[in-house]
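If you are new to this repository, start here. Below is one unmodified record pulled from the training split, so you can see the exact layout before writing a loader.
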Amino acid sequence: MPLFFSISPIILLIWMMTKRNGIPSYIALPLTALIVYFMQVFWFGVQPRLLHANIITALIAVFTPVTIILGAILLSKLMQISGAEDIVRNWLENISPNPVAQLMIIGWAFAFMIEGASGFGTPAAIAAPILVGLGFNPLRVVLLTLVMNSVPVSFGAVGTPTWFGFANLGLPDDNLLEIGRLSALIHFVAGLVIPLLALRFIVSWQEIRQNILFIFLSILSCTVPYLLLAQVNYEFPALIGGAIGLALSVLLARLGIGIRHYERRYSVQSVPFNKIVKAMMPTMLLIVILVITRIYQLGIKELLNNAEIAWQLNLGWLGDLIISKSLIISLQQVLGTSASAGYKMLYVPAIVPFLLVVLMCIPLFQLNRHQVKQMFCETASGIFKPFIALFGALIMVNMMMIGDENSPVIIIGKALASMTGEGWLLFSSFLGALGSFFSGSNTVSNLTFGGIQHSIALSNGININLMLALQSVGGAMGNMICLNNIIAVCSILGISNVEGQIMKKTVLPMLVYGGIAAVMALILAS
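And here is the target side for that same chain:
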């Protein structure tokens, strides 16, 4: 019965969102959260105060994805209103009018690099508007960017899912490095297939076959350096692999290597170099700031995450409001419980870099007051429904994780492991995907289920590093069906009520990814 009550809300949510005439996420998610609330009170016997505390922490936590969405929309509006988007489109058309080349350059290599620098869902947030600006269908772009943004994720945000995601296990550095090596190898093999499935959402199999040489060269230009670097480092494979791959993909496309000659969709004039630089300045500034603020060795990341208390105020029964020296705003001991939440004002990629870059570029593009007002008003106009959907999602996630070893999430994980027995190695990646579906993060998935995977490996005599690598790979492939990511990229592109439709289509590539991970697990375990 505990398993039935634990898994029923998830089955109901999936049914509501994927059925014919599916219920929109901003209704389905709060409704599911309400069901989980009553389930925790009446079946699991959780104290209402703890549940209410987790609702409050969800309200704080929701500002992380919402402000990222706002920042990405604001940057997109800046590019549109300033005319930079048209110049970038013309530049990419001059590199190659071939749509496959454009999709691989932006949707694959560029997003690969951004994932390595930042994570937080920013690759799709930045790449998707560029692709839509090139004339691709917004819904199909959502599908492509979600599926493409899987291979680099285990090393996203400078390796955070690996070095921080498994931090609670107390593993030595050699183990983390071996987990990174195995993860990279599995991703490398999956990377030969997954981008093809992503491309199919936009172009035909015939077009894919006609450009197959370029596609594989672009894939390998990212994944070969990614795999090689993972042998010695677990922080920079995605960032450096993506940067190398982007440069090589642009060069290959410009030289026409491996791509079919494609008639231009419209006459394109040559764009002067200084105009290209100016139009690309917001994107280049964004990348530079992300890299500088994410690489620990540069010292700025530590400053932006400084948790040393600068100011503290007791709010009575509500909890303790704390502001750190790096402007991390947190509410701790909410309602007298252990629940807490915070918002890293300077580290979450919202104010820095999105808002900062926009403010820097307003004078660069000489926008007038009316244009600036239009930019901010259009950005704010479409955020209410995503806010409600994400708030509902985070309440549901928080409540599903209450109860430690007896929480619904852990009950589901343990039940899946016990049902498969010795064959768990074949299915372990799907537990990682489940974690990402719930939490929207490979890192949180690893933190949540890393301990379970570790104990199963010890109990069954399975290679611990391989098991945790499969967990990390699963967390990455789960990005395809992660509700937070789906809602975010749909909001940025201004499309609504299609979340269930998207999930139904992205689940197939995720299952293929899991199948590849299972085959690789058998090979590596032998």
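Two things worth knowing about this chain: The chain is about 70% helix and 5% strand. The first strand starts at residue 309 and ends at 314.
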